[in-house]
Amino acid sequence: MPLIRQEEIYPVAGTPWAQAVQMVAGTGGVAQYDIVLVNDISSAGSVVPKAVKADSDGTNLHAGIMMIATGKASAGETFLAVPFIVLNNVNSAAAAGSPVYLSDTAGAFTVTEPTGLKIPIIVGTVLVNSATVGAVMLKPGGVTTAGLKKVGKVTFATGDTSKTAALGANFGNGTAFATLAANATNNISVRSAAVAANGTLTVNLSGAPGSGGVDVNYVVYSDLIDAD
Question: Count of CB atoms within 10 A of residue 216's CB?
Answer without folding.
Answer: 23
